[in-house]
Amino acid sequence: MRLGYVGIFLMLSAFMRLSASDCYTGGTFVEQNGIDREFVKLWESRGIKPSPLCSDGVFVRRICIDLTGEAPDATLAEKFIKSKKNDKRSILIDRLLKSESFADYWSMKYSDILRVKSEFPVNLWPNAVQAYHRWIRDAVKTNMPYNKFVTALICSSGSNFRYPAVNFYRSAKSHDPKAIAGIAALAFMGQRFELWPEQKRKNLAEFFSTVRFKKSAEWKEEIVYHDATAWTKTRILTFPDGSQVTIEAGTDPRPHLAAWICGKGKKDLASAAVNRTWFWLFGRAIVNEADDMRPENPPVSKVLLNYLADEFIASGYDFKKLCRLIVESSTYQQSPTGNAENPDREKLFAAYPVRRLDAEIICDNLSLITGVQDTYSSVIPEPFTYIPYGQKAVAIADGSITSSFLDSFGRSARDSGYLSERNNKVTAAQRLFLLNSSDLQRDLYRSEKLKKLYTGRSRDEIIDSIYLLVLSRYPSPSEDAVLDKTYPKRGRFNSRDAVSELTWLLINTKEFLFRH
């Protein structure tokens, strides 16, 4: 059975008109932790009611994508939805935090802001990129305390191949101390260096004024080191908050900067980290933009930002505990639907914000369904640009290695370290690709995974399996009504045409393309 373009558009239009409330909404909002307590106070003061909790089908897809960059497979989605355990959401969260996919996905996020890229304008070169990315991934996987992670970057010295953290310095646009200070302010304090007063910029740059670079005999290797002869006299350096430290001649000032930024009573590092993590999980930050933290750009809730920063510091800068604290809150687990009478609902997180998936996630989700891997390459051929077949897009180390699909869907170029480099806006070209790509249609038609869905199974079982595979849930009653008209129960559904057609239709829904 093949509907053709007219039939597809009519059915897709019918799906778009359906109310999502019957498949998105779950339980009642209940306070779980300090995040919820603060927001409840804030909402009550503004006359806002929170959305109800999301359904299990929505949650399993959301949490898998948000923590691992992967949609759940049909088996996991079905098992989770059918489970009667009261703590099944917490159990799933723990499982995902321990997964290899968590390390892959979050190392991609940190590689974006640390500019892990071999070619212009960063020019780390492929050998160093692989070493740097592996070091970042190991830090995420082992849950290295964030303050130690930052200290290792700030205080790093040695070969960019053998001591990967020194690539933090090599990612700067130049060897000038101000250029290095700029990437440090952005990455560690979430602040835009160019907006600082000139004297404050000079003060921070002083901490990097003894950093030197030299080449070695090995191709593309560079040594980063502290020049003990740079200063001949004791100096007094000023931190960004105005406090000062005395540095003896010959002493590396960078450990003093690391000690200050991670020091007791200091919240710049923790606040920037929790604000950025909140942005990655919600699509909007407590201080928005997430890398523009300054007095003139106040947070939605200063109490909430301080609460999260305090919790992060008290945990020993445990990143996984921070993620768990956020995703276990009812604020995170809200439905994306709800009453919309107050224009501040979205800004105040009174419903889960719907937004488009990252380019790498869409690419990997399509590969999960079709069984066909995208191909990746670098504009400038270098060693290590070969990507083994089966490599996930979220696990690609090098920002210079890409594909036409990733570029079209707005993957971060990793040129500046700004979060805005990733463009998740929906474009006409993206919609046309999903609707018109003959390659995608062919891959769906030939998919061995889809073929297994209709072998020896009933019509309803096939449809349920397609929904679980593509949207991680069962069809809603209103969708069932549309499906009954389009694919009558007395008709045949166990064919490649019908299965690939319905799969293609669901891929073109907003629900597939968006976080919700």
Task: Explain how this protein is built.
Among the domains are: 4-21 and 358-515, no CATH class; 144-261, no CATH class. The strands form four sheets. A three-stranded antiparallel β-sheet has the order 1-3-2, with no helix packed on it. A two-stranded antiparallel sheet has the order 4-5. Strands 6-9 form a two-stranded antiparallel sheet. α3 (34-46) runs antiparallel to α15, α7 crosses α8 and α11 (177-189) packs across α12. A hairpin with a 5-residue loop joins β4 (235-238) and β5 (244-247). The protein has helices spanning 4-17, 21-24, 34-46, 56-68, 74-82, 88-97, 100-113, 126-141, 146-154, 167-170, 177-189, 198-206, 254-261, 268-282, 302-314, 319-327, 359-370, 404-408, 428-436, 438-446, 448-453, 459-471, 477-486, 496-507, 510-513, and strands at residues 158-159, 211-215, 222-226, 235-238, 244-247, 355-356, 377-378, 401-402, 514-515. The protein has 516 residues and is mainly α. The chain has 25 helices and nine strands. It is globular.
Radius of gyration: 25 Å
What ranges have pLDDT less than 50 throughout 5 or more consecutive residues? none
Give the helix/strand class. mainly alpha
Mean pLDDT over all positions: 91
